[in-house]
């Protein structure tokens, strides 16, 4: 049997307050009840227990022996409940759950999360990654960093960066065909995930709208970061966002043979529920992103 059906919790709360104050009037003031309502709740509890809990005297009440035995245990029980709920609230306020793509997490966010936590020592960060666009009503996330148009019902979105892409490959792989000087040279090499629509968009922007990519070995790595790792290893040409790979270019691990960048109409956005915009942890992360990412827009 459920406790809420076996024991009248409202009556127990009224009893605890009346026993603590030794006054039905003060208990009513604390709980927002009339003295009559307090008397009714205590009588309800006494009838259920089959024990008198208070001795009623004119303008004064006192606990019976049964009431004296019960009162400290009920006070302790409500204290435990209060502490549990406070702990839940503190944990919720102190942990920031961020949902994002594996690529953004690995290629940008991981570099800066340490700084955020140093600046906000009271906020723990939980990072979750997937390629899916989450539903905030079904996922325990405070913030999402996602690719899209920035228009999502019920969400506030801040522009982070443009999703522009271009072919990138290792210099060693480029050397196997005598270098990559023109877009057609890419067709001499294995393309990582040739079914990715970014390839057709880029080739069209490069003046090759009718390029035939059919029949090429298909491969799906599930995230751009993994495709980049394969490209660095010389396993093919990846279509990537060069903003994520400036360090690899500087180290000579990967090259961007063409300045041409293509665009599919989507960008990276910081999003959260509108009704959570003033939550301290959400506000702290939003302010941090505004300060850290030069392209951030309100």
Automatic annotation (TrEMBL):
<keyword id="KW-0805">Transcription regulation</keyword>
<dbReference type="InterPro" id="IPR000847">
    <property type="entry name" value="LysR_HTH_N"/>
</dbReference>
<dbReference type="Pfam" id="PF03466">
    <property type="entry name" value="LysR_substrate"/>
</dbReference>
<keyword id="KW-0804">Transcription</keyword>
<dbReference type="InterPro" id="IPR005119">
    <property type="entry name" value="LysR_subst-bd"/>
</dbReference>
<dbReference type="InterPro" id="IPR058163">
    <property type="entry name" value="LysR-type_TF_proteobact-type"/>
</dbReference>
<dbReference type="InterPro" id="IPR036390">
    <property type="entry name" value="WH_DNA-bd_sf"/>
</dbReference>
<feature type="domain" description="HTH lysR-type">
    <location>
        <begin position="7"/>
        <end position="64"/>
    </location>
</feature>
<dbReference type="Pfam" id="PF00126">
    <property type="entry name" value="HTH_1"/>
</dbReference>
<dbReference type="InterPro" id="IPR036388">
    <property type="entry name" value="WH-like_DNA-bd_sf"/>
</dbReference>
<protein>
    <submittedName>
        <fullName>LysR family glycine cleavage system transcriptional activator</fullName>
    </submittedName>
</protein>
<comment type="similarity">
    <text>Belongs to the LysR transcriptional regulatory family.</text>
</comment>
<keyword id="KW-0238">DNA-binding</keyword>
């Amino acid at each position: 049997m459920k406790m809420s059906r076996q024991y009248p919790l409202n009556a127990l709360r009224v009893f605890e307050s009346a026993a603590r104050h030794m006054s039905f009037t003060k208990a009513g003031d604390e709980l927002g009840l009339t003295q009559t309502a307090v008397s009714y709740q205590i009588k309800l509890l006494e009838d259920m227990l089959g024990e008198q809990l208070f001795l009623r005297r004119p303008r004064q009440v006192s606990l019976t022996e049964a009431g004296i035995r019960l009162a400290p245990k009920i006070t302790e029980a409500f204290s435990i409940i209060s502490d549990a709920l406070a702990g839940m609230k503190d944990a919720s306020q102190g942990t920031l759950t961020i949902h994002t793509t594996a690529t953004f997490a690995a290629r940008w966010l991981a570099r800066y999360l340490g700084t955020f936590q140093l600046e906000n020592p009271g906020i723990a960060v939980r990072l979750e990654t997937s390629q899916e666009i989450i539903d905030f009503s079904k996922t325990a996330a405070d913030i999402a960093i996602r690719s899209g148009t920035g228009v999502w019902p019920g969400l506030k979105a801040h522009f982070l960066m443009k999703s522009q892409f271009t072919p990138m490959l290792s210099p060693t792989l480029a050397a196997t065909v005598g270098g990559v000087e023109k877009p057609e040279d890419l067709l001499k090499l294995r393309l990582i995930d040739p079914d990715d629509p970014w390839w057709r968009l880029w080739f069209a922007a490069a003046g090759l709208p009718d390029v035939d990519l059919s029949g090429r070995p298909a491969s799906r790595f599930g995230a751009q970061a993994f495709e980049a790792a394969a490209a660095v290893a010389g396993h093919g040409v990846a279509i990537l966002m060069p903003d994520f790979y400036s360090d690899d270019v500087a180290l000579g691990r990967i090259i961007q043979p063409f300045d041409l960048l293509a665009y599919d109409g989507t960008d990276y956005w910081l999003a959260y529920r509108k009704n959570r915009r003033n939550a301290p942890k959400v506000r702290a992360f939003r302010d941090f992103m505004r300060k850290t990412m030069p392209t951030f827009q309100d």
